[in-house]
Structures are given as C-alpha cells and as structure tokens.
Amino acid sequence: MANNNETILRFNKVSFEYGSHKPILDEADFTVRRGAKITLMGQNGSGKSTIFKLITGGILPDSGAITHGNGLTIAHSKQVIPRDQMELTVREFFESAFSQKVYDIEPRISKILDAVDLNAPLDRKLNTFSGGQQARILLAQALIQNSDILLLDEPTNNLDKAGIEHLTKFLLDYKKTVIVISHDAEFLNSFTQGVIYLDIFTKKTEQYTGNYFALVEEIKNQLERERMKNVRLEKDIANRKEQANFFAQKGGHMRDVARKMNENIAKLEAEKVEIRQEDRTIRNFIIPCQADLLGNILTLKSVSVIRNHKVTQKKVNVVLKKKEHLLLAGPNGIGKTTLLEKLATGHAKGEEILPDVKIGYYRQDFSTLDFEKSVYDTLKDFSGTMTEEDLRSHAAGFLFASEMLKTKVGSLSEGQKGLVAFARLVLERPGLLILDEPTNHINFRHIPVIANALNRFEGTMILVSHVPDFVAKIKIDQVLDIGAL
C-alpha cells in the first residue's frame, strides 16, 4: 500500500541561472508528498517551467540538491507540442514517449485517448489538429506513461468547457502525484491541496497548504500584516530618532542616553520585514486602429465545419463594420482556428475583406513571431518613427526591461511570448484584429488590462476564447457558433 506521507520529491536549496545575468532560482526549498495535488504558481517568467525541467533532469541545478524517491518515474505534459514534432503522426508521437519499442502501443493509445475524450486517427499528423485537440494529445501522451509524478504545464489552454470538466474529474480521481502550472484559478481550486509560490523578485520559493483561493487570500493577508507591522515600527523609529537627536544635542550624560537610544533604533530597524513585492501587472494600453475604415470590413457567407474528421461547408451571414466584435464559438476541433488562419491569410472560402485593411493576428502558437529574433528587433520592425526612448518605454509597459530586450523570442516563456505578441499588435495599428485564445499562458493579473484594451479597440475584431470570465469582460456584438451549424 502506498504511503501518502512519503516525500516523493525534494528541492534542497536549489539555485539555477541562465547565464551569469539571468538568475532564476535562489536556494529553492520545497517537498512534495506521494499522491499530492500541487499547484506551481508565479508570474510569467518567474521560473515555473524551469522547475519542471529541473525535476525531469532536462537541466541541472547550479547548486543545491534535487532528490527523488527510489525508482521514481516522471511524465511531463508540456504547454505546446514542440515545433520539431508537429509533423509526427499520432502513433509516432506516442511512441516517442518510450525509450523502447512498445508492441501493444495501438490498444494503449486507443484506451488513453478515450480517457481524454478524443477521437484521433493514428496516422493523422499533429499539425492538423486544433489547439484544443493538441492539448488533449499532450495530456494523453503523459498519461500513457503511467508515471509516479505527472507534470502538467497549462493543461487547460485551448480546452473548451467540456474538456476542462473532463480533465478536472480525471485529476480528482487520479491517485498519483500531480504538479500543475496553470493560470485558470477556478480549475486550480477544484483539486489543489497545496501551492508552491515562486517570487520573481527574490527568486525563492514559498510552500503553502490548502486550496488555491484560500492561499491567494492568505498571501494577501500576509502582505497586509507585513505592511502594518512596518508602519508601526516606522512610527516608533521616527519618534525615537527625534528624542535621540534632542538628547544628543544636550551633551554630557545625555549623549550616552542618545547612543543607547540609537542602538535600540537599530534593533527596531532590523525587525522591519521586507514586504513581498506583488507580481507586476502590464501597463494599461490601447491598440490603435488603422485610419479611414469605412463600410463593411468583413463579409462572411460560408464557413468550413469539421466533424468526425470530415469537412463540410455551411452557409452563414456575417457582416462586420468598424467597432464591431465577433465571438467565434464552438467545441474543440470544429474548425475555429482553421477559419481564423484562413481569414488572416485571405484564403477563406466565402469571405470578403475590405481591400487594404491591415490584419493583426494573434495566433495561439505564436508562429507569427520569429523565434530567432530578439524582443527588441521584433518590436523595432513595427516601430515606424518611434524614438528609441519611446520604444523601450513601450516594451517596459509589457514587462520587458532593457536586459530582456536582447533575449530571443524563442527563449521566452509562453506567457512572455504572448506579451510580445500584444506589444507588437499595438505597433501594427490593425484595422481587423483576429485573436485566437489570447489569454493562454497569460498571468491572471494581466487579463483585465488586456480585456480593457480589446474593448477600446476602434476597429473590427474576431475573438476565439474558451475562458468565460474573459469573454464576459469583452463587448461582443455578434456570436457565430460553428458547432450549432
């Protein structure tokens, strides 16, 4: 019988940095017990995915020790399918999870795909599936390994409501250890038993026990207690300094009194706590609209609907003018991402976009970004007559300080890539904005800022999102539910 009090994973004063100028972890300390359901929490770029790489042995710590239970096995479901694997078939992708040939691979794949509620032909290439279907395949590839620890990196990204409900039930019933990175608060709160919090400022970890919402409230209350303690100490210190200065000016014995008071003041200074810096939020921003937009920006008369891997054309009647927002709805795999891609490239059947309209396209896989370019060059390409100072200020608004501007886009976290994409959209000044799951990977603190920016967009917008709370914040003029056609 498994011992649920057994420590299955331990980080003991683990430090790691990418090069000499990019410290990520400073003496990280935490333990994970067998069978626990743990959330890994922290701002975009704080090192959550780095911790996963350290757990799997993909990278090694600069100092400290990582210990596993004897014979421990680990499976890692990544945020996205690696680009170099997108041409693999479903069968080849599952086979790549094993170091040796598995002779009963096909029935095992069939069983695990049933577990994630997906029908996927084994000879179909991964790049032909929707984002939500790819999310299910990633999860299934991790599950088929039947490992002691399951690492899930943003598993709800691209999943529709049914997919999230299915995943939640699975995790509640799952008997083994799970560590999850996610920005979906409701999803996390449904099964989390503890949180490991990464502080992007101190580079340290903090460990809490309890559900997700209770822990967020605990951190908030701790911040307030720390602030109030410092307020009291600062008031006491100010009064004592005033008295010490008074006695010091009297001379003689009074100077000794002042000296002792200054010693006590130093002790009080030492009692002040370093208040945790809250995760930074991106600056409020506006996506400027292309000038002189008149008439029907987009007319859509038919769409392709995908069911059971077959495509059929369905008639629709969608007309979008300036300042009108369309929500494209429907379950995973129905054809939403395919339609957005074809609209962005001008290859959609039954569509007509006003000539010379500039299209701003936020792809869920960030393939519109050049991963080999630096953040600076990515933004510079669209900066026009913007001054160097203004460009750097613009980047800083999306949390890219000077040292980050030199970083290649491909080296950023997925959440940071999303922020680069938004920063670039601002510079592009589109007339038609096409957004495919724009909150994937994004820290929840940024979501209201992004929603506000989209609401203020003066052009035409088409949005795909499976996040109800986010959609509720957006002004939606029309809904096209492909699944209902």
Helix and strand arrangement:
Blueprint: E1 7-17, E2 23-33, E3 37-42, H1 48-56, E4 63-68, E5 74-77, H2 90-95, H3 105-115, H4 131-143, E6 149-153, H5 161-173, E7 177-181, H6 185-189, E8 194-198, E9 205-209, H7 212-248, H8 253-271, E10 296-307, E11 310-321, E12 325-329, H9 336-345, E13 351-353, E14 359-362, H10 375-380, H11 388-397, H12 414-428, E15 432-436, H13 447-455, E16 460-464, H14 468-472, E17 478-481
Parallel strand pairs: 3-7, 3-8, 5-6, 6-7, 12-16, 12-17, 14-15, 15-16
Antiparallel strand pairs: 1-2, 1-4, 8-9, 10-11, 10-13
Helix pairs in contact: 3-4, 7-8
Defining key terms:
14 helices, five-stranded parallel beta sheet, alpha/beta, Rossmann fold, six-stranded mixed beta sheet, 35% helix, 485 residues, 17 strands
Can you give me a brief rundown of this structure?
With 485 residues, this protein is α/β, with parallel strands linked by helices. The chain is built from 14 helices and 17 strands.
Report on this model:
The chain is α/β, with parallel strands linked by helices and 485 residues long. It folds into two domains: 210 residues, P-loop containing nucleotide triphosphate hydrolases (Rossmann fold, 3-Layer(aba) Sandwich); 189 residues, Rossmann fold (3-Layer(aba) Sandwich). The chain has 14 helices and 17 strands. It has a six-stranded mixed beta sheet, sandwiched between helices. Helix 3 crosses helix 4. It is globular and about 95 Å long. The mean pLDDT is 86.
